[in-house]
Write a structure and sequence with these properties.
Layout (H helix, E strand, L loop, with lengths): L20 H17 L3 E2 L5 E3 H8 L4 H4 L15 E3 L4 H10 L9 E10 L11 E10 L4 H17 L6 E7 L3 H16 L7 H9 L2 H4 L4 H8 L10 H16 L5 E2 L11 E9 L8 E7 L3 H4 L7 E7 H10 L10 E7 L2 H16 L4 E3 L6 H10 L2 E7 L1 H6 L1 E6 L5 E5 L3 H17 L1
Parallel strand pairs: 1-4, 6-7, 11-12, 11-13
Antiparallel strand pairs: 2-3, 4-5, 5-10, 6-8, 8-9, 9-10, 13-14, 14-15
Helix pairs in contact: 1-5, 5-10
Bound molecules: adenosine monophosphate.
Length: 436
C-alpha cells in the first residue's frame, strides 16, 4: 500500500467550501419547505447500517451492491458486516418497521437529506460521497399517490428554479409476476444475440436481465431497442394501475415521456418508476432524480405488507444546474457590524460590545491584532460589513461610538445607550437602498 499525501482528499469526495454553502442552504431551505408544506416529517438514519439491509433490498446483483458498496472493516460484536449507506430508502424502511410506524395514521410521509456513499468511478456528476434529498410515502397503493409523488418531485425542481429543461420519463415494472414473465421473454430474446452484448451484460443476462435495458453501451442499446417491452407483459391489475397514473399526470398537465427502458437498477422497485432528466444532457449523469414504487420491501424485511413509493435527487447535480442557469442565490454570509478599536481603553471594551451586539441579533466581527484605524477599516471592507463601529479613547470614556455607514461612507457619533435602535434603523436603510 502506498502512503498517500495527507493533504489530499479521497478520490470522488470534495469539500463544501464556505463560498459554496449558499447553494446548500438554498436547496435545503426550498426542499424542506416543500416537504413540510406537503406535511412530510423529517427522518435521519445512521450513515452506516448492516450491509445485508442493502443487499436484501437492492438485490445482490445490482451494481450498487455488487460493485459500489463501501464495506467497513470493523464488524459488530457478532461478526456482522457494516456498510456505508449507498441510498436512503432501505434505511428509512428499516426504521419504519423497527419503530412501529405501521401503527401511525397513513399515509406515513418522511423526508431526508444527507450523504450517501458509492464506490463508483468518479467523473463529472458522479462522486463516491454525494448528497441526496429524498422522501418516502408509506401506506398508499392508489395510483393517484404515484401521481402525487411525481407532482411533489416536480415541485421541488420548480421551487429550485431548475425545471426548465427537465423531462419526466416514466415506466411500469409491474408486479413480481409481471417481472417473472417479462424476464423470461427478455432473456429468450437476448439469448439470440448473446455475442453482441457487452461483457457486463453477458454476466447480467442470467442474473439481472432488466439491467441490460438501461446499459449505456451502444451495442447493448441498439439490441434492446427491439427487445420485448415490459408494458406488454403487465398483468391486468398492473396495466390498469399504470393507465391511471398516466391519466392522473394528464389531468395534472404534467408532460411525460414513456421510456420502456427505464428500470432504475435496484431490485426493490415495482410498478411505477420515473426519472427527471435534462433534455440537453446526453451524458450518463443526466438524471437529476428519480423514484418509484416498492410495495414489497416492507414485507421483504419482515414487516406487514405496506405499499410504498419514494423519490430521491442528487444535490451536486442540482447545484450544477443552479450554476448553469445562473440562478441568483441569496448570500448566506452577511456581516452587519464590524467593531474597530483604537487604544488600550477601547480594546478592553470591545469584546463586551461584540458580545452584546451578537446577543441583540447583529452578526458582528472584529480584529484584535490590528490597532490602526486604516488597517481595521480595510478589514471591515474585505468582510463586506454594512456598518463599522469605531471605538476610540474618547468614545470609550464618553460611552459613545462612531457609526460609519460602509456603503455611503457617512459617519456620526451615537450614544451607546441608543446603539441597538440606531443600528436596526441604519441596517434597514442600507437594505432598502440595496434593493432599489
Ligand atoms: P439513485 O439512488 O441511483 O436513483 O440516484 C438518485 C439521484 O442521486 C440521481 O438521479 C443522481 O442525481 C444522484 N446520484 C446517484 N449516484 C450519484 C453519484 N455517485 N454521485 C452524484 N450523484 C449521484
Amino acid at each position: 500500500m502506498t502512503e498517500k499525501n495527507i493533504i489530499q482528499k479521497p478520490r470522488g469526495t470534495y469539500d463544501i467550501l464556505p463560498e459554496e454553502q449558499k447553494y446548500w442552504q438554498f436547496i435545503l431551505k426550498k426542499f424542506t419547505a416543500c416537504c413540510e408544506n406537503f406535511n412530510f416529517s423529517k427522518i435521519d438514519t445512521p450513515l452506516f447500517e448492516y450491509s445485508n439491509l442493502f443487499s436484501k433490498a437492492m438485490g445482490p446483483t445490482s451494481d450498487v451492491v455488487s460493485k459500489e458498496m463501501f464495506y467497513l472493516s470493523r464488524k459488530d460484536e457478532q461478526g456482522s458486516e457494516f456498510a456505508l449507506r449507498p441510498e436512503g430508502t432501505a434505511a428509512v424502511v428499516r426504521s419504519f418497521i423497527e419503530n412501529g410506524m405501521q401503527n401511525l395514521p397513513t399515509p406515513v410521509k418522511l423526508y431526508y437529506f444527507g450523504p450517501m456513499f458509492r464506490y463508483s468511478r468518479p467523473q463529472a456528476g458522479r462522486f463516491r460521497q454525494f448528497y441526496q434529498i429524498g422522501f418516502e410515502i408509506f401506506g398508499e397503493d392508489d395510483p393517484n399517490c404515484d401521481v402525487l409523488t411525481i407532482i411533489i418531485s416536480a415541485n421541488i425542481f420548480k421551487d429550485l428554479k431548475i425545471s426548465k429543461n427537465l423531462i419526466l420519463e416514466i415506466n411500469s415494472l409491474g408486479c413480481q409476476n409481471c417481472q417473472k414473465k417479462f424476464k423470461k421473454n427478455l432473456v429468450s430474446y437476448l439469448n439470440q444475440y448473446k455475442e453482441y452484448l457487452c461483457p457486463d451484460c453477458l454476466v447480467r443476462l442470467p442474473v439481472n436481465p432488466l439491467r441490460i435495458l438501461d446499459c449505456k453501451e451502444q451495442r447493448c442499446g441498439s439490441l434492446v431497442k427491439s427487445a420485448p417491452q415490459i408494458i406488454d407483459n403487465l398483468c391486468p391489475d398492473c396495466k390498469s394501475h399504470f393507465q391511471k397514473v398516466l391519466e392522473g399526470l394528464d389531468e395534472a398537465n404534467l408532460a411525460y415521456d414513456l421510456n420502456p427502458l427505464l428500470v432504475r437498477g435496484l431490485d426493490y422497485y415495482n410498478r411505477t418508476v420515473f426519472e427527471f432528466r435534462d433534455i440537453n444532457d446526453v451524458s450518463r449523469q443526466s438524471s437529476l432524480g428519480g423514484g418509484g414504487r416498492y410495495d414489497d420491501l416492507v414485507e421483504t424485511y419482515g414487516g406487514p405488507k405496506t405499499a410504498a413509493i419514494g423519490f430521491a435527487a442528487g444535490v451536486e447535480r442540482i447545484i450544477d444546474k443552479l450554476k448553469e442557469y445562473q440562478i441568483s442565490i441569496p448570500e448566506v454570509k452577511k456581516l452587519d457590524v464590524f467593531v474597530i478599536q483604537i487604544g488600550e481603553k477601547a480594546k478592553k471594551k470591545v469584546i463586551t460590545l461584540v458580545k452584546n451586539l451578537v446577543d441583540a441579533g447583529f452578526s458582528t466581527n472584529c480584529v484584535l491584532g490590528k490597532d490602526s484605524l486604516k488597517a481595521q477599516l480595510k478589514t471591515a471592507d474585505k468582510f463586506k460589513a454594512a456598518i463599522s463601529l469605531i471605538l476610540g479613547q474618547r468614545e470609550a470614556l464618553d460611552n459613545t461610538v462612531i457609526l460609519r455607514n460602509m456603503i455611503d461612507g457617512s459617519q456620526r457619533t451615537v450614544k451607546m445607550i441608543n446603539l441597538e435602535k440606531i443600528l436596526k434603523k441604519e441596517l434597514k436603510k442600507i437594505k432598502k437602498e440595496g434593493n432599489e
